[in-house]
Amino acid sequence: MSTLLVTGGAGFIGSNFVRQALERTDHDVLVLDKLTYAGNLASLEDLPSDRFRFERGDIADADLVARLVGGLDPATDAIVHFAAESHNDNSLEGPRPFIDTNVVGTFTLIEAARRRDIRFHHISTDEVYGDLELDDPGRFTELTAYRPSSPYSSTKAASDLLVAAWVRSFGLRATISGCSNNYGPFQHVEKFIPRQITNILRGRRPKLYGTGRNVRDWIHVDDHNSAVLAILERGRIGETYLIGADGERDNLDVVGTILEVMGRDRDAYDLVGDRPGHDLRYAIDASKLRAETGWAPGTTDFREGLARTVEWYRANEAWWAPQKDATEARYAEIGR
Ligand code: NAD
Ligand code: DAU
């Protein structure tokens, strides 16, 4: 491969992917990003200008997408599709952009990719499988039935089904990955971990939804992205791979660890109202990915990964401060 067209490359995971791809591979990178409230060009500063280009635009704009995909070489290039409306709370307040971007946008990209026979990798999520009981000994695998709960996860599920159908009906050379909850630098302050870190940095208390007993399976963003590179290099066309790093923790424990790392009492948080339809537990079995690609996560100590993330937010207030007040004002409107 020589060029990767990365959609959503100005977002959290996409911008970290661009940096890792430029550091670890020989590919050039072309980012297509609409720069919604979640996209930030400051996440893409200091990249080598001879290997990196940025195009502002909508993945649902068929003419623009056809032009960019028209410049790719089917023999060497690939599309890595991160762009999405990604936040569950927003999808409950206004689902329409989730349909437009996650469903229509993905459709637009795979139509362009199949016309030019371009290799396609679709970034999805464990949330398409719904949730597990706290005491369920099982975890999600690639064979778990789809059972999405929210407008966000249902649109991600719809996009996965489109990609799978395009593989079968049109021979699209695609793979899909479903990852668990990511944390690390450049994550928008609307999300759980950066919201709590920046609350504490601002002298506010962390906010836990409901009882705080909900469980997420945390993975460092660099490990998600190294898995995506492994799938691009060694994944089998038509296959789905789940990405996870055995990082299950309930939200109470995550907030307690953040507070401790930041030198506060573990119980210095507030319980607030719950998210409607709030998924109880996610858990990933990544055996297939590990066995087929040899991938393994680099960050296995969550507390250490979290401490590095806290330091990043402490050192980069100029990156997150412009979004903080507006984000908290939106949460105040919905009582969370
Ligand atoms: P994000 O919200 O931080 O970034 C999304 C990016 O997509 C932004 O730069 C935004 O400007 C861009 N975008 C949105 N709509 C667009 C459009 N119509 N056209 C072009 N660009 C558009 O999201 P994220 O957390 O980095 O997630 C990236 C991908 O990974 C998503 O597909 C998400 O479903 C998936 N995912 C996220 C997580 C997680 O924990 N954050 C876990 C698993 C999977
Ligand atoms: O599992 C993968 C998914 O992880 C991705 O597909 C999504 O794009 C990503 O946003 C994330 O979804 P969640 O809904 O799990 O993430 P969020 O950061 O919104 O919330 C994580 C948990 O923390 C969840 O149980 C809700 C809770 N929460 C969240 C916020 C923002 C709180 O308790 N307080 C908060 O302030």
How would you describe what is shown here?
The chain is an alpha/beta fold. The chain has a domain at 3-182 and 219-243: NAD(P)-binding Rossmann-like Domain (Rossmann fold, 3-Layer(aba) Sandwich). It contains eleven helices and 13 strands. A seven-stranded parallel β-sheet has the order 3-2-1-4-5-6-11, with helices on both faces. It has a two-stranded parallel ribbon with strand order 7-10. Strands 8-13 form a two-stranded parallel sheet. Helix 1 crosses helix 7, helix 2 (62-70) packs parallel to helix 4 and helix 4 packs parallel to helix 5. The model has no long low-confidence stretch (mean pLDDT 98). The site of nicotinamide-adenine-dinucleotide has 30 residues, from helix 1, helix 4 and strand 5.
Q: How would you summarize the topology of this molecule?
A:
Blueprint: E1 3-7, H1 12-24, E2 28-33, E3 52-56, H2 62-70, E4 78-81, H3 88-93, H4 96-116, E5 119-125, H5 151-170, E6 174-179, E7 182-183, H6 192-201, E8 207-209, E9 215-217, E10 219-220, H7 221-234, E11 240-243, E12 248-250, H8 251-261, E13 270-272, H9 287-293, H10 302-315, H11 317-333
